[in-house]
Amino acid sequence: MDRLSGAQRWRVRFLNVAEDDAQDQATQDQATQDQAIQDRVAQDRDPKSRKVQDLNTGSGDPADPVTAGPSTQCQRGFDRDKYAALQTEHITARREQFGGKLYLEFGGKLFDDMHASRVLPGFLPDNKILMLEALKDETEIVVVVSARDIASNKVRGDLGISYEEDVLRLIDEFRRYGLYVGSVVISQLGGADGPANRFRKRLQKMGLRVYRHYRIDGYPSNVPHIIGQGGLGQNDYIETTRNLVVVTAPGPGSGKMATCLSQLYHDSLRGVRSGYAKFETFPIWNLPLDHPVNIAYEAATADLDDVNMIDPFHLTAYGERATNYNRDVEIFPVLNFLFERVLGASPYKSPTDMGVNMAGLSICDDEVVREASTQEVIRRYFKALVAEAANHQEPTTSERIGLLMGQLGVTVHDRPVVDPARALAEETDAPAAAMQLPDGSIVLGKTSALLGSSSAVLLNALKALAGIDNETDLLDPATIKPIQDLKTIHLGSKNPRLHTDEVLIALAVAATSDPLAKLAMDQLPHLRSLDVHTSVILGSVDEGIFRNLGVQVTSEPVYQTKNLYRKK
Fold it and tell me: Cα(151)–Cα(153) distance, rounded to whole angstroms?
């Protein structure tokens, strides 16, 4: 399949949206959101649309539990208990289908899937790993990291750590859940591999098995070369001991699918029966193309030039629309041919068929999910603006997300904390911040001689949540002064104002003797998932504190100072 240009894919996207409008409107006009979900599930279960029930992503009859209504865990928009049950059942069915070893490619994040928890309220950040925990006795983990990402010191934007370090973090987390990590694969070798080789030796000294996979000329289009000794044959064969092999990575583009294909090839040479499936939460295949959940995924991957689209292979094979994205659709003809060469026959009729994702069947309040996803798109827009400003980039990503916001009919003003923060900044001619509390009220934080705006809004929010009068000083100025002196006189800081971490430490000390400070400290867990907007780009310390507290923060794409050097 010829690769479409970015502009062409955008046109395809909007054409597909236009085709779906009539069908989607009928669903959205139902009397209640619960009924809307039930109707969508019923359509997905139509036997006329399910010609190959044991292969299709929405296959078998996984929707049966849906008819029983939401579980007690459906407290917001997503039923995590139902999701875990359906997902485990579907993975088990897929394993039985192949009757041997199953390589399960895990896209997205197994841990700390904050995107999923933001757009699917009720989804736990570790939902997927908890599901795997139920299968831990049969599961083996393979972690894949690209030599290119090691060489470029690629960093996870959400955690601020390199992919190299994230491999170690992932292994520790897997082990904490009792999951067996069999090995690490360093993929895409073949170039300046010095950093990758150093990392390989480091892992080996830690007692880990490390395998090497290489770049293949012409991948993925040159199938005759790929299926041979000069292609997949040059890769190390990963020795596994369990039949459910989960292949994961620190981030996209690491080589997970290529690793699975390599194993299928080597298994076939050894007479080992094995199969492949893909677990990727987004886009959600059985939600409409223009559903805010799927649009939010497109916003999250706008820097990768990913575009959601109707799966044409699925439409041809089953006569039904399924949402997928361009990379899977573009690669499927080649991938399908590879399956035929390696397995003798392809088990799949579409890229959607390869998936085992049941998230769409676990939404229990569509309206809540729509609103959460719309807010996520706006947050992604601000994040893109800040990244472009910080790295002096062209506004490519932000413009793409801006188009998505236009499709949803929203602007930045639909994020409730934006206008109050902007107004206070204009009024005071200094950095300002705004936070929305669970009851919808807005608390503000302004810059003072003692506190930065982020510290101020944090303290004011804690007071509001604790029912403490806003005029009450939780921190005595006499207590703050020694901290300022320490910063400026002894530690060389030019900014005397307390950052959020310093404020929290001072509050924790005060809480040992002040009941009001203790009451405020007790409110910290209630900050999780609250929204904050700041009028300037945050420093690394304040950004990290908000992230650790679970606060969803956005910023205007401007710096407080005109300094050229900025601490990362």
Answer: 5
Region label for 255, one of left (φ > 0), alpha (ψ between -120 and 50) or beta (otherwise) = left
Number of independent structural domains in the chain: 3
As to burial, measured by CB atoms within 10 angstroms (0-12 exposed, 13-18 middle, 19+ buried), residue 545 is buried
Decide: helix, strand or coil at residue 156.
strand
Residues 6+ apart with CB under 8 A from 504: 458, 545
Q: Is residue 364 part of a domain?
A: no
Q: Are strands 101-106 and 161-162 parallel, antiparallel or unpaired?
A: unpaired
pTM: 0.81
Looking only at the bridges linking them, the beta strands covering 531-534 and 552-555 are parallel
- pLDDT of amino acid 317: 96
**Omega into 515 within 30° of 0, i.e. cis?**
no
Q: Domain ends where: 218, 248, 281?
A: 281
Residues 474-515 pLDDT 10s: 988 888 888 888 888 888 888 888 899 999 999 999 999 999
| 3-state SS assignment for residue 521 | helix
CB atoms within 10 A of CB 484: 18
CA distance 23 to 21: 6
- Judge if 230 and 291 occupy the same domain: no
The gap from C-alpha 374 to its chain's centroid, in whole angstroms, comes to 15
Question: According to the 3-state scheme, what is the secondary structure of 428-473?
Answer: HCCCEEEEECCCCCEEEEECCCCECHHHHHHHHHHHHHHCCCCCCC
Token pair belonging to 503: 């404020």
Residue 10 parent element (H or E): helix 6-28
